[in-house]
């Protein structure tokens, strides 16, 4: 099997200022083509550390992908280092130069002379294959050395993604005979990792050696991933299929989706299939549910909008929650979220509505309603259902969990009331 | 200087299913106490790979922090490996056992016998110091070996965070004499990385050897970070101060904040200082601006809410956008976002409003209004200002960039109209 290492370069990764999302993307894409990412290493903007990482990873992997350290500013030392590492010299590449000029003049709309540091982006080692970067000034570079492939990419995520998709993947497929990898991921909610594992005890013990089961818990959900590796993709899919189906049966009461997709996609597909619409009324989740739903392309077909009613007066004026309710039982109450659902159904003219109200912390809790208390209601014109959560985390996680629980509650409501 | 390596364990990191946020948190916290994270390595659930990573990182670093691989399911192999690596044997720790029982009975509310796999969480190597995990069943483990410190933590983010904060940091401070590190980060918007770098050419060349400047571009903003390392924190702060102030002067026209904080915090502080309120009307950003603002604790003091008007009828009914406007110039137009601002000011009764309408892609573009066209308006009772963006990325990045531009436009409007 072809192995890869990913080396990410940049002090910002080591002081924790930047979260590394690039590696996940690269790993996903390589994996689909049959390359197994064996290790990911992050090093700082330190010459010797980068050099050492190259030395070590090439001992382990057939492909070494390097991201970061190619920008136009002085803290970027990767290009000269790569040039020296592979024994080349820096020369101006005319095509890259023309592209840099084009970007500055036509796209960035910055007439006038181009800064020398930007012109320098057109310098590349003379012993690499240049990978054109349509979305930025720093080109990708492909080196063949010591029987290994080294690929250097800029760290800006959308530029790196463009290069992986348009330049890197097909070249790797031409260079290596890839094995096949097939994954199937299903996704459950409502049970912890251990309880799910208990259900799958015999199943897991009975898996053949080339099939692997992994548990991926996140935000109250557990994803289960089956992986099989071999030679022929079709044969692997066929071999995996009965295990994939059996897995779905075993966790059926908790199964949300038999695909690796988010709750917001599951709900979107349910609504599209039935031609129904939805809207949201968010207090404590503050627009996060709306954001999740609208992050799906095409969501305007079923999603009309949200009334983010952070202030009580907005709950009254725009959702019609009664002043008396807010006074007697408060905004964080079953009665309030029920009225929020009713207001949403009426004012947004939707088939389904979901509403949240809670105390996300760190302040605002009381002995009766501690931080983490959340009421959720879902409903249609005939029926409303509610649940109460008692979350016990920090603000960010409480918001995520409240949103995920609300979406899952809505999903179940749609399934049983459609 | 004390160096650390972070080893994260789990196939989910190598197939790109999970983005590693743990490392960033650990790096930040270690950094504050004066520990420099030299490398981060991610390896799969593979015995030999984990073992090798331990062998290598201990050659380089004084502290090796390991996360992941401690869960109750069968794909977790770390604990037995660590036990063997350090030559201990697994024994039941009575305190951990009592804690596991407490969690299942009192917190998770799962009466009945506890699963054997959960009871196993109470088994720890007899040669480690147990670090109690208040938030979960898997304890942290602290090993002293070969003159190095090894710390194993669960991969669940909030459990890992609790252990770092409550157990790890003070123990490290007791174990090592830490050097001091001081960072100052400022944050600019409106100019690219190279243009900012050009402004700072002489400044950067004149920095003393112990002060480092880094450029951290993200979403149309550039963060600039100065770092100084030495012995005495007070002396370092004093030495860094004039460079920090000079840096702010040099980028003054583009300076958003002299701290490492988000636009949503900058705006929150402006509004709190003036006792004003705001609301939002979001079409294309779909609640993401509301989410950013409400992610700040205490935002209810100045944020009243949002009308996420994904459907045109919601723009009409809840924001008072005229049907004629939507028909003649469309939802993605200057006139529509102006009316959305007016509707928000009136219906949410706020001092400032910001509105967005655009086409985020991948579908929905036309020759006149291609994907990436976004109109933004901000206003108060006296005045409204608008800008048009032409974004050229994927849906997710377009949403982020539209939100960031809207927030920055609002910030400037508040500064000049308060």
TrEMBL record, chains A, B:
InterPro entries, A to Z: CinA (IPR050101), CinA-like_C (IPR036653), CinA_C (IPR008136), CinA_KH (IPR041424), Competence-induced_CinA (IPR008135), MoaB/Mog-like_dom_sf (IPR036425), MoaB/Mog_dom (IPR001453)
SMART domains: MoCF_biosynth (SM00852)
Gene3D superfamilies, alphabetized: CinA-like, MoaB/Mog-like domain
Recorded superkingdom: Bacteria
One Pfam family from the record: MoCF_biosynth
Family indicated by similarity: Belongs to the CinA family.
Database matches in PANTHER family: NICOTINAMIDE-NUCLEOTIDE AMIDOHYDROLASE PNCC, NMN AMIDOHYDROLASE-LIKE PROTEIN YFAY
Protein's recorded name: CinA-like protein
